[in-house]
Every structure is written in C-alpha cells, then in structure tokens.
Amino acid sequence: MDTGHAMTIDVLARRAGMTVRNVRAHAARGLLPPPHLQGRTGYYGPEHLSRLDLITQLQEQGFALAAIERLVAATPRQSAEEALTQYLHMLAPWAPEPSLDMAADELPGWLGVPMDDQTWRTLLDAGTVQRLEDGRVRVPNPGLVRAGAEAVRLGMPAETLVAVYRDLATHVTAVTTSFVDLFRRTVWADFVRDGLPHDRQQQVRDVVGALQPVAAQALLATFREAMPAAISVFLDEVSDTFEQGAPPAGEEGPADSER
Fold it and tell me: Where does the record place the HTH merR-type domain (predicted)?
C-alpha cells in the first residue's frame, strides 16, 4: 500500500515527476540518501521525495547536477538537505523576470516595432522568442527583448543587436562569475565552515540579496567610465576620416553615388 512512507522507486519517480532511470542516476551520484531496505527491496520516504523536488528546483534555476553533487558531498549528510534549501533560497533575489506567453500576432504590438520575416527568423534563431503550439510564442527573457526593441526603434537592426547580445552575455557571465566566486570564497565559505548555523541563515540570504544591486551598480559605473573613452576613439576616427577627405564609414562619396 502506498502510504507515502514506503514508496517503491516506481512510486517515488511518479510522485517526483521523473523517470525511474533519473531517480537511479541521482542515487548513483550520491544525491539521494540510501533507501530503507526491507529484504531486498528499497523503500523511499518523504525525505527522498523532498530531496528530488529540491534537485528539480535547483536544476530549473540553472544549477548543473555536478554542482549539486559537489554541494552534497561537501556537507555532512545531516545538513545536505539544509544546504540545498539554503542555495534555493539564495537564488530568490536573482530570479529572472518570468517568461511571457502570447499569441504570435500580438508580439509586434507588445514590442512596439514592426516585424518582418527576417526579424522573426532572427529572434527565433537566437532563442529570444520561442514558438509554442496553437500559434503562440514565448518570450523567455521579456526585459531583454524589450531592450532590444527599444534599440530597434533607435535605428539599429535586429541582426546586429543579436550579435551584440551574444558578445555581451559572454562578458556578463565573466563578471557574474567573479562576484559569485567572491561570495563563495568569503561569506559562504565561512558559513559552511561554521556548520551552516541557523542563526546566520538570514544574514547569508541578506548578503546575496544585497549583492545584486551592488553588482549592478558596479557594472553600470564601470560602463559609464568606459563609454566616454570608446566614444572619444570613435570621434577621433571620424575626424581623421574627414580630414583625409574620405566619406564616413557606411556612406558613399559623390563619385560613388553617381556611378
């Protein structure tokens, strides 16, 4: 009888919304506590289901199984659940804006820009817009797409903006890695070394929450510092071009336009 305290692996997998194969894989990686053995049959309880739910939520937040495995291995077995829960809570302040679903013909109006076939292909190929069933689309990162639409209204082509986004994502990933590594080597390392004390859990969460505006402010300040220098280089290049009598890049001279 399925009481919730004596689940076979098939029942556990069904309740967790995954396959038996995935459950076995998690167990083989040490992500699950051992089952309760009755004879040669292993039975699982609520603690196993809770662990699988935590693993699923962490994966949905972008955690790789290898990272979850290292976390479980690095903490005492009795505190592994607590550590995983703490990680999940720490992600809350950084949760991205929820994805947005709508009818495909509503997207141009939502963006406020016209969309031809080429623009559609560009967004779909970049993954910034995804097709769903029944003529609907999903925007995984609405804030990003809104920013892109604003840039299009300023006269910048969508294809170029996608290339800039990919370059930007690479640099931002390096920046976020630096901030996370700083947190990991300081606040988190001290917290784990002291045994994940309950009276400091909220303090750690507060640090993570405060880190977001701090990181954003530092990134924006650095950008503002670098932008004038980049614009100065651009203006110097334009001035040199004019002094040499050549048209600015992207424009034709009189002789070229008459050909």
Answer: 6-74
Query: What whole-number distance in Å separates Cα of residue 27 and Cα of residue 55?
Result: 12
Distance (Å, whole) CA 48 – CA 112:
48
Query: What is the spatial distance between Cα 141 and Cα 147, in angstroms, rounded to a whole number?
Result: 10
Question: Does the global pTM surpass 0.85?
Answer: no
Q: Name residues whose C-beta falls within 8 Å of residue 47's C-beta, 6 or more positions apart in sequence.
A: 33, 81
DSSP helix/strand/coil, 102 = strand
Residues 238 and 244: their CA atoms lie apart, in Å, by 10
End-to-end CA distance of the chain: 87
CA distance 212 to 218: 10
Residue 1, pLDDT score:
39
The CA-based dihedral angle spanning residues 27, 33, 37, 41, taken in that order and rounded to the nearest 10 degrees: -20
Query: DSSP characters for 19-44?
Result: -HHHHHHHHHTT-SPPPEEETTEEEB
**3-class secondary structure, 129:** coil
The pLDDT assigned to 241 comes to 78
